[in-house]
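Subject: Sanity check before I submit

Could someone independently write out the structure tokens for this chain? I want to compare against mine line by line before I put it in a report. The sequence has 752 residues.
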Amino acid sequence: MDVSGHLIRPTEGIKTDARAEVGLCGEGMSLPRLLLLVLLIRRGALVCRLQGKAQPPEFTKAGDFVTGGIFTFRTGYRDIVPTFQTLPDRPTINLREFQFAQTMIFAIEEINQNPAILPNHTMGYKIYNSCGMSNIIRSALDLVNGQEEIIDERNCTNADNLSHFATCACLSNREVFPSFFRTIPSDLYQSRALAKLVKHFRWTWVGAISNKNEYGINGIAAFMKAAQEEGVCIEYYRAFEQTGPLHELAKVVESVKYSTSKVIVAFMSHREVDVLVTELFKQNITGLQWVGSDAWITEDALTSSEGNSLLVGSLGFTVSKAQIPGLEEHMRRLRPSQFPDSQFVRDLWEDTFDCVLNDTANTQRKPCDGFGSVQTVESYFTTVSELRFTNNVYKSVYAVSHALHNLVPVSVCSESCPPGKHKALQKRKHICCYDCVPCAEGEISNITDSMDCFKCPIDYWPNARRDVCILKEIEFLSYAELMGIVLTCICLIGAMVTTAIASVFFHFRETPIVRANNSELSFLLLFSLTLCFLCSLTFIGRPTQWSCMLRHTAFGITFVLCISCVLGKTLVVLMAFRATLPASNVMKWFGPAQQRLSVLCLTFIQVVICILWLTINPPFPYKNMNYYKEKIILECALGSPVGFWAVLGYIGFLAMLCFVLAFLARKLPDNFNEAKFITFSMLIFWAVWIAFIPAYVSSPGKFTVAVEIFAIISSSYGLLICIFIPKCYVILLRPEQNTKSHIMVRTKDIQY
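---
Independent answer below. Compare away.
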């Protein structure tokens, strides 16, 4: 348990007895030496440099208290003789170890759902799949200290170790292993019980065999001492290791073969038993009574041993069975999608269903169809009828949670300041007395009892608890949001209506009402209105360098083209009635060619303004952080405000000129009311754009863009409706008025 109270990382599954998976891959360092090494690092002033990196954890879950586990999901190679010339296949899957890991996860999830344990807190886990002493050491150091390159007294964390499997009596030495705990009895009690068992059957002449490590040596020594007290004599004692030299195994076999005792007490792991009985079977040494330690006496793996018939009738003690409600359902709900980063779960799934998942390289198996379920699979993993050591894992997790839950008695002047706050010392009081002050706006603290808060980077903002800097939300008018969708639809509808009107005019292009006022200007005006509607779309979407330059220039040029056409139509109306006066030849100076030239010249001036604007200081994307502190407004900066207002000013000048001329022609006869309609359209235009300026200046963020789009659309619709809808009404619904006689008026009706 971390003395600071931040993390608890019990190192599950590090075995110290003969059953340990630590030495399974051929490395023989025992756990007491491992723990002693860790303690030396922790207690002394030595510096330990990390050699290599641990594999990432197989299963992880965040929580207020993180519990660590180390298990060995793969436990060696069966029926394979290493040649040391090619890499061996993947080692055998150990379903029991995987069941241990899933039991740990099940217990943690069960505790998190229990409001009576650790209320308002959650437990998490980091579970490693490690094989071999060096890999287990790396995983243990990663759990305790992370991946620090150099570990010394400044960054070495004190953590408790809690084992469900380690029974070595040596671990009861509190001076050497002060932070080791377990949920399984010491071998001292088992050794004494085995001595009494042998005495009970009056076997007073026995042989003794053990592992050549602390588990076996200490366990068999305790047995022999207790056996001597019970009056049992030991004929011989031999020790060997599965990975040791062959001559040691030969000595053991020779002792058994030529001994007179018929009872063997074996204090070792199932791997040593497997090797030994296989050799005895090959030499036809039978008729022995085996008494074993709990490390192998119930081990299912021995049923496939070549000499398993020699073990029939073996006696020993084992951990009592237990039931864990809900565990079987938890096991049968296993899916690869629950642990997408776990390669072991993928391998287990493929081996169980003899298929291959989508992104693996194995093409010799059929693809997994996604409907596989362990609900109908019977294996050691899903079997919960023999929960022995598994129950110890379950109890270990609950022991940790209850220990954390009971850490309530405290004697402090001030409670610890959680992340998001910092210490503020109280005046004229001890340094242990302080206030917890929330971090200022824009600052965070991400550790407990922080003395200061620090500012988030410019693109980040604190979360609600002010313990993490998160990316600021970026705001712009998007096509995906409701306002963007509505404006897009209105723009497209305007463009389609304009196109439809142009189609009507083209179909009735030979009629008097279309020809009366220069049909070329009418079609050019309709074309420019279509562009006005479509250019509004450039204001929607994420601003880029090109879209920022395009949106204002396209708007300015298309609008000037539009107003120039309206101005040309206004001049045509005035000139047409002026031409009816005697001796007037004004239309000679403002014919179709001059009209086209005037529109071209007026538009060219705006093009020059836009080119100068884009050349000198063009618009560009800009992250505006002035309106909101917690989010960024992505907008188009004007670049040169002079260029922007010059574009708008020129549009306003042409619109004012058009309005004045149309106003002067307002008293023309009603039958020819083109000037009156132009006046109405200019009134709408000026009303919209006069209201636009204060709204544009005061609207924040994406609403500024929405106001600009609304102004463009409104003025475009105003021109379209006022100038063209009345004509369409006459063309389509009042064709009797679409005659030359109805349109022509006499000059005597004109008032100036």
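---
OP: Matches mine. For the report I'm noting this point. Residues 1-45, 745-752 have pLDDT under 50 and may be disordered.
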